[in-house]
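Chapter summary example: a protein plus octanoyl-coenzyme A.
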Amino acid sequence: APAYKHILIEKKGEVGNVGLITLNRPKALNALCDALMQEVQQALEDFDSDPSIGAIVLTGSEKAFAAGADIKDMQNKGFIDCFGGNFLSTSWDSVSKVKKPTIAAVNGYALGGGCEVAMMCDIILAGEKAKFGQPEIIIGTIPGAGGTQRLVKAIGKSRAMQMCLTGDMITAQQANAWGLVSSVHPPDQLLDEAIRLGEKISQHSKVIVAMCKESVNNSFELPLSEGLHFEKRLFHCTFATKDRREGMTAFVEKRKPNFTDS
Ligand code: CO8
């Protein structure tokens, strides 16, 4: 495995089928500098192509999931530096391109780019003390990785507007009530909960899970009639797999399915 400086990589779960990426830049509250995001990209790609892994958990520390893009890196940049170098594009986009399910386990601060990276994941679980926010407005900029887009779809326009325009943080309880996260857990149990969820998903056929994720994600991209058409075609495609036959045969024979990811 590559030697990482800003992240930790482990395989978790009883049979090691959940990939865990821990952001580990404690002195900067896991601020997402370029080097860190490039490591995240590499780790995601490695887990995505590892046949033993069925789901990926992304987490930080109890104090911070991530306090945003690195403000010290951005402080002295000009427009041409950003535009010309396509600042914060490739490695950030990689988080939403993973084929396997991704789960963000958020304790502490998920601010700015930190909130945006969490929203790029398929499922967010929060610790009781988690705080979510898009504080870019306070430092004279706007969200740049989904804060004005994914957040609206997650919690609605009025709430997203208020968060983006004030920069105020919301609590885990608020995030839960608004549907930004799936559930809230005691901070010391959050990671285990996320790994258990990853294990549950990993029991299923990986090829079918990937199709299911792709279809749900397309609901954000396509008008309903196109989305339904795409879903139907992928549903038909599941009948081209051995795992679809195995799943239904196991049900009829009243036994557990033995998926082969084929
Ligand atoms: N960037 C760089 N360093 C940071 C960041 C950050 N985002 N956040 C915290 N740090 C550093 C602090 O500078 C400090 O370092 P030092 O000790 O060397 O001064 C250390 O982490 C600890 O931070 P604090 O002392 O501030 O800790 P507190 O517990 O007092 O406060 C807060 C915690 C409230 C989280 C506070 O640190 C804070 O407000 N941080 C900034 C939050 C923020 O504004 N985030 C948004 C950044 S902008 C952004 O994310 C744009 C995303 C665009 C993405 C585009 C992709 C294409």
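Key point: The chain has a mean pLDDT of 97.
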